[in-house]
Amino acid sequence: MRQTLNQIKQETQRKLSKRKNLLLKKYQNVQEDAIPDSVFEELDKIEALLQEVSIRKIPNQINIKMGELEKWYFTMMFDWMSAHPESFDSKSISMTEIYKFALHFFVENIVTVPGNSLMQVEKLRRKIGSMGEANSIEKNIYRQLEDIKNLAAFNSSMVYTLADLSKDFPDGVANILSTQQENEMDSSTRYAQVFAKFINQRQLTKQNIKNRNSSNSLNSDY
């Protein structure tokens, strides 16, 4: 359900006041000449956004003359909104709904967010464009962390096994590693094959635990 004007104002003022207080607290013990100019600019912008604005001179209806480019943009927006029905309140998408959504989205996420509002258009465009790239980097980091987690678990298991069988290796673990330096990077080695089997078994065990706990909503983090 679309929020009312008063609700939007209250939410905007709450966010702006929170940001203002955060900046003031962060720099309260910093000498004024040591505070970055960008902080003063953001505080000034927040103060301006907190001021009440008059909407009396804004007409209830406006006419928009569109060229080929604008028609293309509207078509793209229509397709996007059709795939995201939560973006509009009416039963069908009209040109008015498209305009309102674009206006609301831009004001709520750009104009009333000081960090975004102060940016030059090109810098803002780069920031938005890099969001997908950042998500890709984060996913890659998570995958690498999962690999590290798996490798650490495997090594712990192997160390335990070697320690348990230490009576068969009087020269100790160090001697074994110095003569058999295999790793999981070479898929042809026995180490890599055993490692792959271990990961597969570990994933199966993890899934089995989740399945067993699903009835009482317990989540496993093994």
Automatic annotation (TrEMBL):
Domain of life of the source: Bacteria
Protein's name in the database: Uncharacterized protein
